[in-house]
Amino acid sequence: MKGAGRLSEVITIRSTSFTFDGYGQPVADTTTDQTVWAEVIHPGSATESVKAAQVYPERSVTFVIRHPNPTDDAAGKTLNESDVIVYDGIDHDIIGIAPIGRRDGLTVYCKRKGTHNV
To answer: Are strands 90-100 and 105-112 parallel, antiparallel or unpaired?
Structure first.
């Protein structure tokens, strides 16, 4: 991956697996944390969204990381939109993932979780 020296921030990828209770409802079973190095790209400004006739602040962040499973091993790590990235003590929802090269890395597009922080 070119520019690997730019991966200067530590982030945590938090994955939660679910099981089903006796009523068929999903219940959080295990949470797995994986710490990786990342390049953090902040956009120029925050935005706002309107939900239920109220305006909420939004802040998006892009993370560039090495591919978590570069060899396509069946036992390797995965990353998907249901995971959460923790950066600087703040949770970020993943809204999109784009590959870089042939399993060189991933560009992960995120939005800060919650509506009260900018």
So the answer is: antiparallel
Note whether 37 and 7 are within 8 A (CB): yes
Task: Tell me which amino acid residue 37 is.
Answer: W
Are the CB atoms for 84 and 94 separated by under 8 Å? yes
Instruction: Give the end-to-end CA distance of the chain in Å, rounded to a whole number.
Output: 32
Confidence (pTM): 0.76
From the list 40, 49, 32, the residue with the least C-alpha distance to 108 is 40
Q: pLDDT 10s digit of each residue in the chain, 118 long? A: 666 678 889 999 998 888 888 998 988 887 888 899 999 998 755 565 555 566 666 788 999 999 888 777 777 788 888 899 999 899 999 999 999 988 889 999 998 877 544 4
User: By the 8 A CB rule, do 113 and 91 touch?
Assistant: yes
Q: How many helices (H) and strands (E) does the chain have?
A: 0, 8
CA pair distance 6, 20, nearest whole angstrom:
41
